[in-house]
Amino acid sequence: MYLGIESYKKKSYNARRKTFLVLIITPGALMKTLELLRRVELFKNLTEKELAQVENICVEEQLQEGDFFSIEGESGKTLCIIKDGLMEVEITTGERMPSKVLLHLGVGQVLGEMSLVDRGTRSATARAIKIPTNILVIQHNNFHKLCESNYRIGYVVMQNVAADLSFKLRHRSLSMQGRYNDDL
Amino acid sequence: MTYKISYVVLDKDHPGGIINLESPPSRGELLVIGNVTYEVREVIELMPPQGGFHYLHLTCEIVEGE
C-alpha cells in the first residue's frame, strides 16, 4: 500500500502494455495531524516532543470550494497548513486590472507565514479550489507564545519559514521564464 | 522522505504550483492534481536534499481537464 502525504492519484503509463499504473495515495484528510506535521517543511528538524507542542495549537477547519483563507490587504492573524485539497493564490495587479493567479498550493504547503514574520497585512488572496480542502490553522499569538516558551522551536521554524519563502521565490522565477513555452 | 515539488505547466494561462509528494516523480508519469491530469515532461533538482526533504522542479503538460 502506498502511503502518501497528498491526496492526488498518481498514475504511470506503461507504453509497452498500454496500461496505466494507478497509485492510490492515502488522502491527507485521513492522516493524523502529527503525521502531517512531520512532512511539512515548516516543521523540519523539530523533535517529536516539539511537534506535539505544535500539534496542540493546531485547529482543523474544512473549506468549501471558493471559501477564502485570506484576503489581500486584510489583517492576518493566522497561519494555515494545507492538509488536503488545493488552494489558489492571487493578487490584484492594479485598481482597474483584474486579479492575477500566482500559483496553486497543495498538501503540506503553508499560507500566512509572511504576516507571521512581519505582522503585516495579507499579501495575497487565497481560496480553496477543490472540495474538500482541509487546513490546519495556527493563531499567530499562540505560535509566538510557543516560540517564547521554547526558543529552539522559534529558531528552527523561522529558518524553515525563510526556506519556504525562498522556495516560493524560486518557483516564481521559474514560472516567469519563457523557456517553458518551448518544446522540451 | 518528502518531495517538495515546484511545477510549471506548458500553458501560459496556468500558474503552476507547489505540492508535496511521497515518491519521486519521473518523466512521462501522469500526475492528477485537483481535477487536472498532467504529464511530467521534465524533472530537475532545485536544491540538494536536506532534513528528509528533496526539492524538485517539474515541467508538466495538461493531458486532461481544465
Total helical elements of chain B: 0
Radius of gyration of chain A: 18 Å
Which fold does the CATH topology of chain A refer to? Answer: Jelly Rolls
Domains of chain A, number: 1
How many strand segments of chain A? 10
Residue share in helix of chain A: 25-40%
Note down, in words, how this protein is organized.
The complex is a heterodimer of chains A (184) and B (66). Chain A is an alpha+beta fold and 184 residues long. Helix content of chain A is 30%, strand content 28%. Chain A has a single domain, classed as Jelly Rolls. A 4-stranded antiparallel beta sheet of chain A has the order 3-10-5-8. Chain B is mainly β and 66 residues long. Chain B has one domain. In chain B, strands 2-1-5-4-3 form a 5-stranded mixed beta sheet, with no helix packed on it. Chain B is elongated and about 35 Å long. The interface between A and B is large, with 41 and 37 residues. Strand 7 of chain A pairs parallel with strand 2 of chain B, so a sheet runs across the interface.
Please sum up the structure shown.
Chain A has helices at residues 33-38, 48-55, 113-118, 140-149, 151-176, and strands at residues 10-14, 19-23, 58-63, 68-70, 78-84, 87-92, 99-105, 110-111, 125-128, 133-139. Chain A has 184 residues and is an alpha+beta fold. Chain A has one domain: Jelly Rolls (Sandwich), CATH 2.60.120.10.
